[in-house]
């Protein structure tokens, strides 16, 4: 298998090389491509893009400890939880949730940021200007200082004004797109497609043969529910403002048709239409029609702002209003868009979230408190109580919950449905320079014809395992001689309770495999059937299964 993989890899690389040779021979650029790049970029290379990518990669590898835990980096302390927690908002714009998240953003950066850097330029384009007249025009400063500084600034802005505890470089990626759309609209769309191609080709080269078996998937929210729409739109508008500033200082305007179509295609492909709300307990609402209307409005606004002239908006018969030009009105509309997108993120980031979890039903790791709870108020969503259009910020949630008063965070890290499906969830806590894993484990018995009774334990690496939750009891549907059997989870153990007409006849712990116990006139035994533990109840020669061990995937 290894030789076959190597052969496929070599063949793919050879085909890419042959394609490049064929293109050069067909187009015969004669050095024109290099001259064009060198006319705007220092040595023809987008150095600012390279520096920015290396910085984001370094954050993942070392700050988030991705070098040691590539598939499970530290993420919780590096989200933007509150203005009162600087570490979060300083790092969140450059941190990532995992390798796939990182790879997607860096790929998009590598295809979009060079367009922005080329449009901005390291070298002055005005006649008679000199590269070393001032530090602002020095190509080395522009390439290695000013461009990366702008990237840092955009990352901080998207973090400071994002709605919710966001994480990721995507806000800056969308800023690159907003800038590029008004300068090179067609190239921006092509870059978006190239990003998709690269995301397919590279994994295929690294792993040319993939074997997959049919299996069920754990409960998960819809794909669009994981998109930070507000953060993406904010980044797009910030990039648009910067792009317009550079564009309007130069002569010429792009084609309105190209800008409109490129903006529309970009917004649709990047799912900026996915406006949604979270109702709690795993329910999401997608306002798709509203989202499409907003995307059309966005494309129109970008187009008007890019091609608007300096002609007065009103009649020239009113000289006092000549300063109100079409361009100023369009740019003002874009700036208002930035304000509308940034405004909702300010108040939630000023509010301190109350953890509401006591140490008696939780484990503590440094400043973190971890517990499991069901049907509790989601304090992250409900930080400000608002009701509108039939929706409310007062939502309920269940699952593994993490809080930290020091970091002003409240997080439902894993849903109760996910834990019920997998039986075990790993949670990585941490901070600058440290991390620790806490494992949440569920164990349950399903009453025949009814629901599952279960316990939840938390096992921190630095301390003993702790029982933190017991569900309610459940009664099996089968009855024997008018007796009912209930599964009772209590104090980390499971008991069988026998009742008749609401009268308790006895209670006993579930026996071990191969053993039997008596309670309430019934004999209980545990046996293994098809790899699963089953508890049977017997009386007078009649035996029925009353409980089955919960199985996880």
From TrEMBL:
Stretch forming the signal peptide: none
Record has Thylakoid as a keyword: no
TM annotation in the entry: 42-63, 140-157, 163-182, 189-206, 226-247, 259-278, 284-308, 329-347
Membrane topology: Multi-pass membrane protein
Keyword Repressor found: no
Residues annotated as domain Peptidase S54 rhomboid: 89-248
Top-rank lineage group of the source organism: Archaea
Pfam families associated with the record: Rhomboid
One GO term describing the cellular component: membrane
Location of the protein in the cell: Membrane
InterPro entries: Peptidase_S54_rhomboid_dom, Rhomboid-like_sf
GO biological process: proteolysis
Broad class of the protein's primary localization: membrane
Gene3D superfamilies tied to this protein: Rhomboid-like (1.20.1540.10)
Entry GO MF terms: serine-type endopeptidase activity
Record keywords: Hydrolase, Membrane, Protease, Transmembrane, Transmembrane helix
Protein name per the record: Rhomboid family intramembrane serine protease
Organism for this UniProt entry: Natronoarchaeum mannanilyticum
């Amino acid at each position: 298998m290894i030789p076959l993989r190597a052969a496929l890899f070599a063949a793919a690389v050879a085909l890419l090389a042959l394609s490049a040779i064929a293109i050069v021979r067909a187009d015969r650029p004669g050095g024109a491509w290099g001259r064009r790049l060198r006319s705007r970029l220092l040595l023809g290379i987008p150095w600012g893009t390279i520096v920015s990518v290396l910085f984001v990669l370094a954050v993942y590898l070392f700050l988030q400890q991705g070098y040691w835990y590539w598939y499970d980096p530290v993420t919780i302390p590096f989200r933007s939880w509150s203005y009162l927690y600087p570490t979060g908002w300083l790092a969140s714009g450059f941190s990532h949730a995992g390798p796939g998240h990182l790879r997607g953003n860096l790929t998009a950066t590598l295809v979009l940021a060079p367009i922005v850097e080329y449009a901005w330029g390291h070298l002055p384009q005005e006649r008679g200007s000199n590269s070393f007249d001032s530090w602002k025009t020095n190509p080395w400063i522009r390439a290695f200082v000013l461009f990366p500084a702008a990237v840092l600034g955009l990352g901080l802005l998207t973090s400071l004004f994002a709605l919710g505890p966001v994480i990721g470089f995507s806000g800056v990626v969308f800023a690159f797109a907003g800038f590029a759309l008004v300068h090179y609209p067609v190239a921006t769309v092509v870059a978006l497609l190239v990003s998709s191609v690269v995301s397919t080709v590279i994994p295929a080269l690294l792993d040319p043969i993939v074997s997959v078996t049919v299996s069920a998937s754990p409960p998960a929210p819809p794909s669009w529910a994981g998109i930070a729409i507000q953060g993406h739109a904010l980044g797009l508008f910030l990039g648009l403002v910067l792009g317009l500033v550079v564009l309007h200082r130069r002569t010429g305007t792009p084609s309105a048709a190209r800008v409109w179509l490129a903006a529309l295609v970009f917004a649709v492909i990047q799912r900026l239409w996915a406006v949604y709300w979270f109702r709690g307990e795993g329910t999401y609402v997608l306002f798709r029609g509203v989202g499409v209307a907003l995307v059309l409005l966005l494309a129109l606004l970008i187009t008007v702002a890019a091609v608007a002239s300096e002609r007065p908006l009103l009649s020239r018969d009113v000289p006092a209003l000549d300063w109100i030009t079409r361009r100023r009105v369009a740019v003002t509309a874009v700036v208002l868009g930035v304000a509308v997108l940034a405004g909702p993120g300010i108040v939630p980031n000023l509010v301190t979230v109350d953890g509401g979890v006591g140490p008696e039903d939780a484990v503590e790791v440094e400043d973190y408190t971890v517990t499991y709870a069901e049907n509790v108020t989601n304090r992250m969503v409900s930080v400000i109580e608002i009701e509108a259009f039939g929706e409310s910020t007062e939502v309920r949630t269940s699952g593994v919950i993490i809080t930290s008063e020091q970091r002003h965070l409240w997080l439902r890290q894993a849903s109760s449905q996910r834990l019920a499906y997998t039986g075990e969830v790993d949670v990585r806590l941490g901070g600058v320079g440290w991390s620790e894993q806490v494992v949440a484990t569920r164990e349950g018995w399903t009453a025949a014809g009814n629901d599952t009774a279960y316990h939840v334990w938390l096992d921190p690496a630095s301390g003993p395992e702790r029982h933190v939750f017991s569900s309610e009891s459940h009664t099996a549907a089968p009855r024997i001689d008018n007796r009912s059997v209930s599964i009772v989870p209590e104090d980390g153990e499971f008991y069988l309770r026998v009742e008749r007409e609401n009268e308790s006849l006895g209670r006993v712990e579930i026996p071990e495999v191969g053993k039997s116990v008596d309670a309430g006139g019934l004999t209980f035994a545990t046996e293994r059937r098809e790899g699963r533990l089953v508890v049977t109840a017997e009386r007078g020669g009649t035996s029925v299964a009353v409980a089955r061990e919960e199985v996880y995937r």
